[in-house]
Amino acid sequence: MDDLLERLRAGLPAEALISDPDVMVSYGRDMASFCDAGLPAVVALPRTVEQVQHVMRTATALRVPVVPQGARTGLSGAANASEGCIVLSLIKMDRILEISQVDRIAVVEPGVINAVLSRAVHEHGLHYPPDPSSWETCTIGGNIGTASGGLCCVKYGVTAEYVLGLDVVLADGRLLTTGRRTAKGVAGYDLTRLFVGSEGSLGIIVKAVLALKPKPPTQLVLAAEFNSTSAACDAVCAIMERGHTPSMLELMDGTTVRAVNAMANMGLPETTEALLLAAFDTPEPAADLAAVGELCRAAGATEVVPADTAAESELLLQARRISLNALETIKTATMIDDVCVPRSQLGAMLDGTAAIAQKYGLTIGVCAHAGDGNTHPVVCFDHADPDESRRARESFDEIMALGLALGGTITGEHGVGVLKKEWLARELGPVGVELQQGIKRTFDPLNILNPGKVF
Amino acid sequence: MDDLLERLRAGLPAEALISDPDVMVSYGRDMASFCDAGLPAVVALPRTVEQVQHVMRTATALRVPVVPQGARTGLSGAANASEGCIVLSLIKMDRILEISQVDRIAVVEPGVINAVLSRAVHEHGLHYPPDPSSWETCTIGGNIGTASGGLCCVKYGVTAEYVLGLDVVLADGRLLTTGRRTAKGVAGYDLTRLFVGSEGSLGIIVKAVLALKPKPPTQLVLAAEFNSTSAACDAVCAIMERGHTPSMLELMDGTTVRAVNAMANMGLPETTEALLLAAFDTPEPAADLAAVGELCRAAGATEVVPADTAAESELLLQARRISLNALETIKTATMIDDVCVPRSQLGAMLDGTAAIAQKYGLTIGVCAHAGDGNTHPVVCFDHADPDESRRARESFDEIMALGLALGGTITGEHGVGVLKKEWLARELGPVGVELQQGIKRTFDPLNILNPGKVF
């Protein structure tokens, strides 16, 4: 360990290395509070590609595991330190290197905060759509590593669709440039996409070329209340079936609505069983909202309220964004699931989740990126109560089993990390796991990159 | 070889196997006429997944190379038979298995023709955007294998963005299911994307889950004439810089325009040096065309003619679609390049291509997916003239070198095949090639899947 520090110091300035255990503990984990984490041997905060290469060469020479980190806002433990590892935090590499209006790209370092990039490109009339709820604090490198989603995906897709090219420091310290800065390109296998969502297990992303869109008009939001989640899901299906492309289509169940009101006094309808938020950023959003409002009424909405102004819309968005935090106040702890099903199965997924909550005697609030079929059932429990904790874990698993049975996936956007490792194997099957492990070995033969994560 | 046929017959009906050399020769090659091809030992035309598995198990047992084929409309020799191989043609597996309006997906076998799928989903109010020029004959399996593009990409992106999940028969005959039928999903590495553009070198695609879009309004096209390609490229940059999203933005140079007129008497402007075609499929395309027309005039357009009707628009589209064929009539042979550059470099790319044509004393007509920066310089030459053939090959290479120097890629949408193998290594660099070869070994340790292609 002294050898490790000494070697790292040969290529990094003193301020880029932290070895004080009291400080290091704050780099121990992401936001998946129930996943194991160890104490790192050292935290490295490089500012240059060469420094990252030095860290990886050192790690390879000494066979020390490396855990890459962004802002640690992840929800699956992928960024949790393992005992004795090097935590490689990329947050100091936070420069926006280029924004091009004609090419509609941005070139960034991995530590750039999502919201910082979003605002910077807005000034050039451009738009970087991926908007995870943590967008004010999470980093682009973390977004790429976890293939994060957000509220915009129903219209604009996920992070993966915006990553054109990457510079990656490999396990042995070599630098790989992959992908392109062109709109199209098919030269060889798509290594770029392989890194997206790889949770730091294949290499360290040190630069990214991102695709941008023209900045759309400000979106206008409509809120529709329903007496049941299944009526709300019927509305979701009708909206998509009729060919609408909302810029957002979110669902909050009654538990979530009441939790948000309790926390932030947002004045949401206290007695509703499901609140659907639909938004359009088209040239004439009011007309689109009117059409969607009709479909909601036809599906049984008890109240349909289109926001008149951007400010009202922003308030509804804010209510949705704080949903997970609000649900966390119900009990002392939560487990946040992330099951995505074909949207035609959304109603069955929500009904099934309610049945699981009842079976285990637990409160499970659900908010969902409904237009994508991506649900976040939040299991609320008292972590000091062993029996309730056990029931929480069992219900959490049963929700994933339900998702798979409905033709879905165990993770729509939060990733695998350590939280869902066993479930990944269930989803992929033995052939898939074998090939994925083969890819891992190709990139990281010594298994020093975030070992124990994903697989 | 007798053993090969005998073993294949054990798992495939007689009509699914062709071993008559006179018939087999027609399965020898795709449309890249200058790439080498051998005579297969046998052509297999399976109708079921089990039959494909039987072919691959047999190939593995006997160590016989397998060359998968769709409609052989490819332009890089990726589907060319190698001597003594099994040609595995997927054209008989041509069923559309499912179309879902709510989930906006189609599930298809690989032999479905692109146009057949496009028309089928239109009947459900849906749209499958990828539209290579060969869309009336090419197959979805071939589109996925080559990651094909088309005219729609500037707005709708490439084939890769529409492939959600795949069933793949591996080299050893095992079946892999990868990806999903949900809108989102991040469970493990993105193997699905790895198969897209892998040119049959990693596995045999036997089923695909494709994402669909709502059917857009019929597009309206505008034609703008310019005195120089660089003025037309200025217009392209201005259109993209101002935040427009045309559904098509195509460029034909003067040589191409005159070749199209000569072949099909289309009445295009005979003296123009560059014809730009811009289209919008927005709710009010006329307004968008007017704005874009203004930008064209500001960039120096000598004439701006918006089509008044869908029929006029279709005629202009048709002119663009037959461009490659028209250029083939200029001399006895052509080499079609496929360099994609950042669109800000499009003008430099076209000027540089003209200089290369002059240097080598050749006619090089260019049509381009201008909005994507994706150029197709077509080198016209007499293949009976050895010196002209040599100059053609040298200019073809020099065009790729120019593309790389301008920050581009050697292939925007046609792929590597055998045509651009050496150039792939130049673009990827040694580290990239090493990792790509590692992936190849993981999927195909015996190197029986389309050996000699890509790498």
Question: Any overview of this molecule?
Answer:
The structure is a homodimer. The first copy, chain A, is an alpha+beta fold and about 450 residues long. The first copy, chain A, folds into three domains: about 1-90, Uridine Diphospho-n-acetylenolpyruvylglucosamine Reductase, domain 2; about 95-215, 2-Layer Sandwich (Uridine Diphospho-n-acetylenolpyruvylglucosamine Reductase, domain 3); about 220-405, FAD-linked oxidases, C-terminal domain (Vanillyl-alcohol Oxidase, Chain A, domain 3), CATH 3.40.462. Chain A contains 15 helices and 18 strands. In chain A, the strands form four sheets. In chain A, strands 15-12-14-13-17-18-16 form a seven-stranded antiparallel beta sheet, sandwiched between helices. Chain A has a five-stranded antiparallel beta sheet with strand order 5-6-10-8-9. In chain A, strands 1-2-4-3 form a four-stranded mixed beta sheet. In chain A, helix 8 (about 230-240) crosses helix 10, helix 8 runs antiparallel to helix 13 and helix 13 (about 345-360) packs antiparallel against helix 14 (about 385-405). Chain A starts with a helix and ends in a 12-residue tail after the last helix. Chains A and B meet through strand 9, helix 7, helix 8 and helix 15 of A and strand 9, helix 7, helix 8 and helix 15 of B. Chains A, B: It holds the Pfam family FAD-oxidase_C. Chains A, B: Keywords: FAD, Flavoprotein, Oxidoreductase. Chains A, B: This is FAD-binding protein.
Key terms:
455 residues; alpha+beta; Vanillyl-alcohol Oxidase, Chain A, domain 3; five-stranded antiparallel sheet; 3 domains; homodimer; globular; Uridine Diphospho-n-acetylenolpyruvylglucosamine Reductase, domain 3
